Amino acid sequence: MMSGDEMESALEARITSALREGVASTPEARERVMRAIRASAPPVRGVADDADVVAAVAPTRGSGRFWRSPAFGLLAAASIAGVIALVRAIGVEGPIPEIPGQRVVASRREAARAPEPVVAPVAAPVAAPGALASGRTRVARVQFVFVAPQARRVAVVGDFNDWGLNDSALVAVNHQGVWSVTAPVPAGVHRYAFVVDGKEWVADPSAPRSAGDDFGLPSSALVVEDSTK
Amino acid sequence: VTHSHVTRGDSTGFSTSVNPTDAALVQRVLEGDVESFAVLVERHHERCLRIALRLLGNSEDAEETVQDAFVRAYRALGRYEEREQFAPWLTRILVNRCRTAMSRRVRHGRTFVDDELAIAAAATRDSADGGMWRGEVERALAALPAEQREAFVLKHVEELEYEAMAEITGAGVSALKMRVKRARERLRALLEGEHDS
């Protein structure tokens, strides 16, 4: 007669066996994948431009285990150095109206603590051409600001620019260590990150982290509501 | 072009491919040989499809999500310095895409989709008892919270180590162990009667 543990074990074996079976990859399905691959833009090799991204996690050779890359250390150092990021959404009209429901400024408290020269470009009104009609999708102009005095280059990547693939990364302009770039972003929920020096992928440290990070890299959540509704 | 390969397991639970390695194939793709990616698709498609089907419960959504994951992996291929472990990297992308697909369903008022057609097809392929049992198991899996389902599938269907699962899911090892434990308990509770009969 089977003991309780043996019965549990037998049941679990039947469960896992049923779930492992009954799935078959067909040549047709694999060919559909390859057709999509052939129609896709080719991968860009290396980390030469701002759009490039380095894996935050990479495996060790041979051990079969994972290690965390130096990117994590640099990220931590960047946080200690007081890296802050602000996202400002510009609505339909007027001097930088806040879009309801959006985290307009990532951290006003942090901005207020920052040295005057750092804050100035962030607080200054930015030309607000208003919401742009893009078919039926409303588009807001969003200013991304990232304070990183030591950085040589900063770019913004997100789902709204295909994560910088195909040279679509938004390259920020440096104002004495305050990097900023403004871009049209469709209404909706978005994920984004900053790419520092073409290799360090940094989530907005004061924004909510996105639930599902593509490519295993950190990203932040951005909500752009349709301010015309 | 025919590529022969042998697989062996490693300590993460992923198979490690040799001759040519995944890393060598990635290198070829980066050098412009797009068709080498077909070998990677050949090697990993079924495993990805199994994960996606078990997470999403619908064969059409699963195939679409797997294709999306491969395309994203291909386009991001040049952005990694280290290529020795293609499988966990691809799995991480896939799991993220499955989560996105599930959240899209939630936004549209759909949750786990029980693929009756797939179950029915499986039932006719298998012996009657085997097909019915799989259908019961799939329904029980569908009843689990998404996080428990994901953890259970990666641990017990794909047989991954907890550390590898943590890298893929972004969850801590202890949280994953708890999710797996609860999933096992829930599945046992749901299926014990069926098992006995």
Which helices and strands, and how do they pair?
The complex is a heterodimer of chains A (229) and B (197).
Chain A: H1 4-20, H2 27-39, E1 57-59, E2 66-68, H3 70-80, E3 85-90, H4 108-113, H5 116-123, E4 132-134, E5 137-147, E6 154-158, E7 170-171, E8 173-175, E9 178-186, E10 188-196, E11 200-202, E12 220-224
Antiparallel strand pairs in A: 1-2, 3-5, 4-5, 5-9, 6-7, 6-10, 8-9, 10-11, 10-12
Chain B: E1 6-9, E2 15-18, H1 22-30, H2 36-56, H3 59-75, H4 86-107, H5 116-125, H6 128-142, H7 146-157, H8 162-169, H9 173-196
Helix pairs in contact in B: 1-2, 2-3, 2-4, 3-4, 4-8, 5-6, 6-9, 7-9
What string, H for helix and E for strand, traces the elements of chain A in order? HHEEHEHHEEEEEEEEE
The dominant shape of chain B is elongated
Assembly level: heterodimer
Q: What gap, in angstroms, lies between the N and C termini of chain A?
A: 68 Å
Poorly predicted runs of chain A:
46-135
Radius of gyration of chain A: 23 Å
Helix amount of chain B: over 70%
Q: What is the strand arrangement across the widest sheet of chain B?
A: 1-2
Average pLDDT number of chain B = 80
- The value of Rg of chain B in angstroms is 18 Å
How far apart the termini of chain B lie comes to 50 Å
Question: Largest sheet of chain B, described in full?
Answer: 2 strands, antiparallel
Count of DSSP strands of chain A: 12
Shape of chain A: elongated
Chains forming the largest contact = A-B, 53 and 69 residues
What's the main sheet of chain A like?
5 strands, antiparallel
Order of helices and strands of chain B: EEHHHHHHHHH
Provide the β-strand percentage band of chain A. Answer: 25-35%
Q: How many H/I helices of chain B?
A: 9
